[in-house]
């Protein structure tokens, strides 16, 4: 969620030091006592500020610190930004935007207890702040605090009942971006709640993710993808939630005809073994298109081949290597063969 910025538009003033005063004083001292009393009264007014004035000054200082912290965070110095945000809260604890921005920093650090705490404070101060509610639910989900997560989704009008059990529902398909700050890869996933999804594609092994992994993703879209005429938002993955038991295998094939690959994939599909041709299904996009709207003519996309390729790289995800090797052995003949097979990322056994 984007950070929020709030600035006070109120103009506050406070009394400065008193100017010089000129009075006629009877040299016999007849007026001395009243004048002294008045002078003491003026001095007291100059040194003691009204409570409302002090609060206004604190709020102005907090607003200035908040803005400085935002600038530092934009420059990549989240540590310095966090220090200023915490100072701002000391001066103006009622400023929900500061609590929200602190929670945002902790979210991207994966410090979920701190993120939940500060987003909860932001929601307590501004219950209808949708961004703070979403980040609160994300942190609660990361911590498996299902009661809190369900309460937030329910409050936001999402069809999720109250309770304390994990959410396992059908929220449709969505593309998600793995390792958004590094060598990003966008894959399709099946959403099981508003911020968790199970990976459908087989990611490259150097991503560290597997087919069937359940990931925690952000709630703000960063780019879009089209599938069968419909546009879907892309969400950045925040972290691995539950690892898949399926290992990733890379298989180099030599084909005799275009139908050979189709035959092998059909057999794998019948056995419910996830597979995809990395030679045919993967395209490369620049960052601008990846985080925006990819288009057909982009010069970084792989153009569709006019003729089939004899050598194909097939990816398979399975937790039964023996079954996979048996399928490949049955498929191979004099015109087609497996040139190499390798497990490039092990599944996680529970």
List keywords for this structure.
11 helices, 3 domains, 39% helix, alpha+beta, 4-stranded antiparallel β-sheet, Alpha-Beta Plaits, 5-stranded mixed β-barrel, Serine Threonine Protein Phosphatase 5, Tetratricopeptide repeat, elongated, 350 residues, disordered N terminus
What can you see in these coordinates?
With 350 residues, this protein is an alpha+beta fold. The chain folds into 3 domains: 52-155, Serine Threonine Protein Phosphatase 5, Tetratricopeptide repeat (Alpha Horseshoe); 173-242, no CATH class; 247-345, Alpha-Beta Plaits. It has 11 helices and 9 strands. The chain has helices at residues 32-47, 51-74, 78-91, 96-109, 112-125, 130-142, 146-155, 258-270, 278-281, 287-290, 321-331; strands at residues 173-178, 185-193, 196-199, 214-227, 230-242, 247-254, 274-277, 311-318, 337-345. It has a 5-stranded mixed beta barrel with strand order 1-2-3-4-5. Strand 1 (173-178) and strand 2 form a beta hairpin. The radius of gyration is 31 Å and the shape is elongated. The two termini are 33 Å apart. The model is unreliable at 1-46 and 297-302 (pLDDT under 50).
Q: Percentage of helical residues?
A: 25-40%
Number of domains: 3
Q: Counting H and I runs of at least 4 residues, what is the number of helices?
A: 11
- Average pLDDT value? 85
Gyration radius over CA: 31 Å
Q: Main sheet? A: 5 strands, mixed, barrel
The CATH homologous superfamily of the largest domain is named Tetratricopeptide repeat domain
Order of strands in the sheet with the most strands?
Answer: 1-2-3-4-5
- Quote the beta fraction: 15-25%
InterPro entries: TPR-like_helical_dom_sf, TPR_rpt
Keywords: TPR repeat
Pfam families: TPR_11 (PF13414)
Protein name: Tetratricopeptide repeat protein
């Amino acid at each position: 969620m984007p950070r929020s910025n709030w600035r006070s538009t109120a103009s506050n003033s406070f009394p400065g030091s008193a100017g010089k005063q000129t009075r006629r004083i009877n040299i016999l001292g007849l007026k001395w006592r009243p004048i002294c009393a008045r002078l003491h009264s003026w001095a007291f007014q100059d040194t003691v500020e009204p409570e409302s004035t002090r609060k206004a000054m604190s709020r102005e200082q907090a607003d200035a610190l908040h803005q400085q912290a935002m600038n530092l965070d934009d420059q990549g110095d989240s540590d310095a930004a966090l220090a200023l945000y915490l100072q701002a809260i000391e001066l103006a604890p009622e400023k929900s935007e500061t609590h929200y921005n602190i929670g945002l920093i902790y979210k991207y650090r994966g410090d979920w207890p701190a993120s939940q705490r500060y987003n909860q404070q932001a929601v307590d101060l501004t219950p209808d702040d949708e961004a703070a509610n979403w980040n609160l639910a994300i942190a609660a989900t990361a911590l498996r605090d299902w009661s809190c997560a369900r309460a937030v989704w329910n409050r936001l009008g999402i069809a999720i009942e109250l309770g304390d059990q994990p959410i396992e529902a059908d929220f449709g398909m969505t593309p998600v971006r793995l390792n958004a700050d590094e060598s990003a890869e966008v894959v399709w996933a099946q959403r099981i709640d508003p911020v968790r999804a199970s990976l459908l594609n087989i990611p490259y092994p150097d991503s560290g993710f597997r087919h069937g992994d359940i990931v925690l993703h952000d709630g703000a879209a960063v780019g879009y993808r089209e599938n069968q005429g419909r546009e879907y938002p892309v969400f950045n993955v925040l972290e691995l939630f539950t690892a898949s038991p399926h290992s990733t295998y890379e298989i180099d094939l030599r084909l005799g005809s275009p139908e050979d690959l189709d035959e092998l994939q059909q057999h794998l599909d019948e056995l419910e073994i996830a597979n995809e041709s990395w030679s045919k299904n993967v395209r490369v996009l620049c960052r601008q298109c990846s985080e925006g709207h990819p288009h057909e003519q982009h010069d970084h996309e792989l153009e569709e081949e006019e003729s089939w390729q004899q050598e194909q790289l097939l990816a398979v995800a399975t937790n039964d290597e023996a079954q996979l090797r048996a399928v490949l052995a049955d498929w191979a003949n004099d015109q087609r063969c497996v040139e190499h097979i390798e497990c490039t990322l092990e599944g996680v056994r529970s």
